[in-house]
Amino acid sequence: MATRPKTLQQARATYTTNRELAWWVFMRISGFLLIFLVFAHIFFNNIQINVATVDYAYVAARLSKAWVKVYESFLLGLAMLHGTNGLRYSIEDYFKRPGTRFWLKAVLFTAAGAMFVVGVMALWAFSYQQMGDAMNAVGHGG
Amino acid sequence: MNVTFRIKRFDPEKDARPHWQEFKIEAGPMDRVLDVLNELKWEQDGSISYRRSCAHGICGSDAMVINGVNRLACKVLVKDLGNEIAVEPLRGLPVLKDLIVDMEPFFDAYKAVLPYFINDDPAPVAERYQSVEDRERFDATTKCILCAACTTSCPVFWTNGRYLGPAAIVNAHRFIFDSRDQGADQRLQTLNQVNGLWRCRTAYNCTEACPRGIPITQAIEEVKRELLWRRN
To answer: Is residue A2 part of a domain?
Structure first.
């Protein structure tokens, strides 16, 4: 190659990773998957049952199912990564000062991480035993 | 035909911000926007500033925003615009005076992709042979005249001046897909950075703006695919 880096500084200046490429591919694949996952989620929770009849017992029973925990965790993780990376793109584009970009991204990643943790906790907090207790408490036990 | 011609004026020595100035002029339907600008400058107001050189759509000097879209003033006829014409400087680059913008950030991005032939092999006795098919591969992107109409029509470039922009990617494409060239890895490395290729959101503004008819968005996609398959 004609302009192969000759010093460490030059090498550092030309050093790149495939991180942006990987995120670009991820955004396409996750975007496609989310279309189906989100509509299925809406179907299960808003169309298959009447929202007006939803009570604590129903939610507890639903969240105690293993496939619901896995499905919703996957949906949550994928949506959070997709949305957070999209916001990161916007921050890269709309804020000129490197310091501003750094702090905005720090806040964004912290908030996204916290939301993901809270979401996963809510999904996995209902053990099978607790589900039984809840069902008993509202008279659906058995 | 009677034309109301509005120019977005800016004199850095007098004005705090740009303002519109209106001119009334009699123009022939076959006059180009550049002819009208020349007429105004030569006959009405000598202080109007703009770049022009060849006046035949090849030098790329007189790209500007004409009735809201990026065009070369020497390629747009008055009859296609009607009686109301408004010209502004290109967006996304600092305005120096009237319709003249600072092209340095644009050329910095252009230089970053090493827009020249790279081949360290000793030159053969005759030419470096290239088949018709291999030449065809990058034919479209050889037509770029560096007028900056594409880059300054890009919504990402408007907000993020660090983005290399369509013109730089087009000129990288011209050499990446040249069968005789050996610098593709270096160019792809530059394009693989945060503000390289991946900032493109396929808005298609660049393709619409190009006065040379280069399918720019398609060229950008081809470079994206090249990066995807070459580096994984």
So the answer is: no
pLDDT at A15 over 70: no
Q: Are residues B153 and B51 part of one domain?
A: no
Looking at the fold, whether B79 and B138 belong to one and the same domain comes out as: no
Percent of chain B having pLDDT more than 70? Answer: 99
- Residues B96 and B123 reside in one and the same domain: no
- Regarding whether B97 and B127 lie in a shared domain, the answer is no
Q: Which of A6-15, A130-139, B134-143 has the lowest mean pLDDT?
A: A130-139
From the centroid of its chain, how far is CA A37? 12
Asked if the structure places residue A77 within a domain, the reply is yes
Collect all residues of chain A within an 8 Å Cβ-Cβ radius of residue B198. Answer: 20-21, 23-24
> How large is the ipTM?
0.82
Alpha carbon B119 to chain centroid, angstroms: 27
In a domain, A1, yes or no: no
pLDDT of A127 > 90? The answer is no
* Candidate from A14, A89, A92 with C-beta closest to B189: A14
- The pTM of this model reads 0.86
Nearest CA in chain B to A24: B198
Pairing mode of beta strands B84-88, B2-9: parallel
Residue A99 lies in a domain: yes
> Into how many domains does chain A fold?
1
Phi, psi (deg, nearest 5) at residue B126: -95, -140
Q: Is B81 in the same domain as B178?
A: no
What integer is the mean pLDDT of B116-120?
95
All residues of chain B having their beta carbon less than 8 Å from the beta carbon of residue A91 are: none
Residue A62, token pair as written in the block: 């639903």
Long-range contacts of B54-58 (CB under 8 A, 24+ apart): B57/B145, B57/B211, B58/B145
CA distance A40 to chain B (A): 28
Tens digit of each residue's pLDDT (9 = 90 or more) over B10-34: 999 999 999 999 999 999 989 999 9
